[in-house]
Amino acid sequence: MFTILPIKGFIDQIDGFYCDGIHAGLKPNGNNDLGFIYTKEACNVQAIFTENRFQAAPLKHFQNYEKNFQTNFVLINSKNANALTGKKGIQDIDTLFSSLDFDLINPIMSSTGVIGNPLPLEKLINGAKSFDLNAKNGEELSKAIMTTDAYPKTCMYEVKLEDGSSFKIGAVAKGAGMINPNLATMLCFICTDAKVSSQDMKEALEVNSDSTFNAISVDGDTSTNDTVMLLANGKSNAYDKDAFFEALRLVMHDMAMLMVADGEGAKKVAAFEVINALSDEDAQIAAKALSNSLLVKTALFGEDPNFGRIASTIGASKIASDEEKLVISYNDVIVYNKGELCFTPEVEEKAGKVLQNDKYKITCDIGLGEGKFTAYGCDLGYKYVEINADYRT
Amino acid sequence: MFTILPIKGFIDQIDGFYCDGIHAGLKPNGNNDLGFIYTKEACNVQAIFTENRFQAAPLKHFQNYEKNFQTNFVLINSKNANALTGKKGIQDIDTLFSSLDFDLINPIMSSTGVIGNPLPLEKLINGAKSFDLNAKNGEELSKAIMTTDAYPKTCMYEVKLEDGSSFKIGAVAKGAGMINPNLATMLCFICTDAKVSSQDMKEALEVNSDSTFNAISVDGDTSTNDTVMLLANGKSNAYDKDAFFEALRLVMHDMAMLMVADGEGAKKVAAFEVINALSDEDAQIAAKALSNSLLVKTALFGEDPNFGRIASTIGASKIASDEEKLVISYNDVIVYNKGELCFTPEVEEKAGKVLQNDKYKITCDIGLGEGKFTAYGCDLGYKYVEINADYRT
Lengths: 393, 393
Hints:
The structure is a homodimer.
Chain A: E1 2-6, E2 17-22, E3 34-49, H1 57-63, E4 70-77, H2 86-98, E5 108-111, H3 121-129, H4 138-144, E6 153-161, E7 166-174, H5 179-182, E8 187-192, H6 198-209, H7 213-216, E9 227-232, H8 241-261, E10 269-277, H9 280-292, H10 294-301, H11 307-316, E11 327-330, E12 333-337, H12 345-354, E13 359-365, E14 371-378, H13 382-389
Parallel strand pairs in A: 4-5, 8-9, 10-13
Antiparallel strand pairs in A: 1-6, 2-3, 3-4, 3-9, 6-7, 7-8, 10-14, 11-12, 11-13
């Protein structure tokens, strides 16, 4: 048995992890735009990257290291994605690291921001040179990696094992606006002092992706920079596979939900639960189609129980379905029942009230099998347009 | 040789076609909501319908007739889609037609509006009973089929053949807001007095779909009611296959472009031209991904030459591509050139000026083959959210 307890604070709570964020002059408003994660001893590191065909330079730089390499330094900047920058983009990262006097082991870079511009090397080098590697300022780091995020994203857990030992695991992330289909970049750095092997780290990341980050972003249809990175320094000497997998799942779920809730002006989070589909795959296709539909998202914004848009989106997703078996409900209010008209004014009023909440569940019972999947989405309103109409400036 | 001339007016210009639109009490604002197309002699009719799994009742009703049937009456209503209404939805159509005293041959219904509500039969019957089948009021019909359209959509051509004979072809349509991924319904009724066979009608519709309606809507990812219907009464006794196919292509292209331009608040129309892709299929996937990207659409709204979003969307579409071969331009302004940074302040200013136009072309040269496809899209601004947040009321 094990216990997982949420604790306060940032990743600097974890033994052996140091971090900070500063303003290096990339953001015009003086906000933090450069940060780092540093560990005294080298860490195991594993990452999941975007399936976009144009992976950004820092992702290629990472993958040039040997398999299962160790690192002691991650440098993260916002405002410039270093994507679509060709060979120069990778050379710039090497130039940057070779300009620093720190004792770096396989240093990693991670970037987010505007695509297609060269890195402002001088600002980055001057900024990084000013780092205090003994800093424990997780909050400043969390601000440094933000772009269109309305707030910093973090979570922390302590895991107590049966033998009395314990480890910590936590994350800092950025990402807003429903990653897919908007292609907004998601960066998530998960740190732990668990004594976990590279092999288990890799497996745990993969196992937990489907129900967390992939439930908010369709596989592969992602930005040039999307990264989920897991760093483990082993300092706690504690480990239990089940406990670690479960704790990592919690961390990844928390961060995914924070991203959905921060949907570039979003006020509502909807769980799109598709059940009794012919297969889990069908359920996933339909659930993601719902969470990505512009018409569904604007109806949520308008608090309009327009179940026809839900049904039409399921039909358009082309999964196996039959309108005489489909049941749609908003929380426990059934609005469509197998083609028998049940959308009375009373039902409409009840359903409308559900949509006035900040969080609710929209369930589509396909009635054909046992497949299920839940995707998470948010509403889309005026603020989304405002944020994205002129993001670069 | 043949000549195709655009002419003024609505489909009532075509010999033997009668039409009108009235207010039957479905729209609360008193606007037209019910219309008809009638021909004295029965017409050949062919149609292309949505690939949505939940086809609306009128589509099923049509498909219950024998293959290559003839008709003399199409009844069209807006405000209620008669979709997701089960067997009752089809029965209602039969009830409606059997309540009318007109001499109807295989009457057809077509509906658009809110999904999941039963047809208001009494209003429809009373409205239809008041029709004057000798009316020639194409403009009133064009208004009756509108939902979120900002303006009625029509076009007319006269086709003069080498032997001195001639026929007319024209259309009335509704549809706005970039059909996919928004699932807004598109209805298009094309009428002609050409002496064309059912077989040629079917073939011509299919041949011309890809470069017209399918360039603004991804195959299959469509609403429950999407319909393109072609009616031919043969009264001109004139026909030439090449001339007819080309005239039909023009009509379908015109109507598709009118729908894109009326993009629920859209002010800009962009042609997304993908060239030199590995295959035509690849080009089509990428071009449609661009025309459907929320981030691209909001950048167009903001007149922001954010080519990174263009590139990232191509990468996310997973077609064969290489950032060192890709070239992106806005009209003739190259903003990304094979990874060599060319986005100088001067180029940025020029590109920004292109985006201030109402219409422009964004070209992506993939540099890998000879595949090409052009998709058409529009910008997405505040008005889109306003229109769709509470469409039902």
